[in-house]
Amino acid sequence: MNPRKTCSIRLVVFDVDGVLVPIRSSWGYIHEKLGTTEESKLNYNAFMRGAIRYWEWMYLDTLAWIEARPGITRWDLEALFSSIDPSPEAPVAIEKLRSKGLELALVSGGVEVLVEMIAQRLGIRHWVCPALSYDPWGRLVPGGEPRLEADRKDRAVRELAKKLGLSMRNVAFVGDSYWDLRGMREACLAIAVNPSDDRVVEEADYIAENLVDAADYIIEHAKAL
Question: Which of 15, 101, 128, 222 ranks highest by number of CB atoms within 10 Å?
């Protein structure tokens, strides 16, 4: 923990995949369900080596889904995610934070359908993620709107804080993976839950045992840092 930090936490931002839900990647989950995992690996590798941009990655992934299941709809995606619930600790942690008057938000690179479902189940009003596109009949069309690029969560955190009239010293970020690093660095307080990357462990102010532990730490240290 950086002793020079002076935080007064009023907003707690959560990643979704691997943090509030047990699956590490909601995009990967759909690829597994539709049998398009090999295509997803090719698209991922192309993005990571800089051969395609983020919106092109979204286009190729969603195109693979459509080719695997022509006419796939938003409701089909909802059905595929129907068995994915928030982690058991999530409602408890959220209620602890809410009882202290803290604002809550989701910033996720995950599939919009799942992010919206989790936000609704946990009663979280503010959430940002890439948006999928549908035709007038609800059928998925390739592409979407990269309202959030998976590796640029710092931008979404800044925009959320500004919208709520807060500064970065008022923000805590709870993440688990490489994709959360910029969001964690941008926030005043960075918490890792179920970390999947050594860089997250190295850069977090605190490694929580679970979401309830993370909530307790935020509440205990919010005014002291």
Answer: 15
